[in-house]
Amino acid sequence: MDNNSLSSFVKFISEFAVNYGLRLIGAIVALVIGFWLIKKFSKALKNIFEKRDVEPSLASFLHSLIVIILKVLVVISILGMIGIQMTSFIAILGAAGLAIGMALSGTLQNFAGGVILLLLKPFKVGDFIEAQGFLGTVSEIQIFNTILRTPDNKLIIIPNGPLATNSLTNFSAMPTRRVDWKFSIAYGDSFPKAKSVLEQLLKNDNRVMQDPAPFIVLSSLSDSSVDITVRAWVNSGDYWPVFFEMQEKVYDTFAKEGINIPFPQMDVHLHQPK
């Protein structure tokens, strides 16, 4: 090898070392810093999940998924710094992701809905809710479906996608609930007497709250009856027992007190032609 060839080779090695060596060192430094930041973020994410009391299996899945995505992004960025063209790879990855997303659109919607439900917690296991036309107690919240148990012991499986995006009623969310009744008495019976009977029945039931006080009014004069609206507050767990038992007590007590509960009737008047 002559001096010119040796000089050219040394120059090539020097330029390569300067150009790619510095890039490689910078890439290694960026990789170390990137993974260090991901590690710090991972710890912070775990603390957030613990503070929000996220369901453990969901927290573990989301944590692993987010960390993997961040690491992949860091590696792609480092390869780009070195000079490796990642455009084609990213395009292929994006196209594959789009195809998978379209094929599993319904499943992914339910998955996203499950994540939202488990993070925001509009209801929890044991709550009595009304959603998608069904009433029941929440038996289980899965990542794709929520399972309700109806009062007649049926299992209803509701996809989480529509459950997370549509309105629902949670009857167990608040500690107290208002019970509403409508009782009817016959025309000619004494409303003050009926009101006094109702007040006494509500006062004698220690499940009925006296603050706020029960509400009793003559609400309407119907075709066949005088209607009385009664409202009272109870603990949420006492709602149905109080609702049904009070109707039975009112029926028995009205009968003993001589207060008539009317049935629908119609007066028909016949006129003979002259």
- CATH classification, class level of the largest domain: Mainly Alpha
* Percentage beta strand: 15-25%
Percentage of residues in helical conformation? 40-55%
What's the number of extended β-strand segments? 8
CATH topology of the largest domain: Helix Hairpins
Q: Secondary-structure element sequence?
A: HHHHEEEEHEEHEEH
Number of helices: 7
The low-confidence parts are none
Average pLDDT works out at: 82
- Rounded radius of gyration (Å): 36 Å
Give, in spatial order, the strands making up the sheet with the most strands: 4-3-2-1-5
* Sheet/helix structural class: alpha+beta
Oligomerization status of the protein chains: single chain
The CATH architecture of the largest domain can be named as Orthogonal Bundle
Overall geometry comes to: elongated
**How can the largest sheet be summarized?**
5 strands, antiparallel
Distance linking N and C termini: 144 Å
The number of distinct structural domains comes to 3
Explain what you see.
- By secondary structure, the chain is α+β, with helices and mostly antiparallel strands.
- It folds into 3 domains: 3-103, Helix Hairpins (Orthogonal Bundle); 122-170, SH3 type barrels (Roll), CATH 2.30.30; 176-256, Alpha-Beta Plaits (2-Layer Sandwich).
- It is built from 7 helices and 8 strands; from the N terminus they run H-H-H-H-E-E-E-E-H-E-E-H-E-E-H.
- The protein has helices at residues 3-51, 56-82, 87-103, 105-120, 160-165, 191-204, 239-256, and strands at residues 128-131, 134-141, 145-149, 155-159, 168-170, 176-185, 215-221, 226-235.
- The strands form 2 sheets. A 5-stranded antiparallel β-sheet has the order 4-3-2-1-5.
- A hairpin with a 5-residue loop joins strand 3 (145-149) and strand 4.
- Helix 6 (191-204) crosses helix 7 (239-256).
- The termini are far apart.
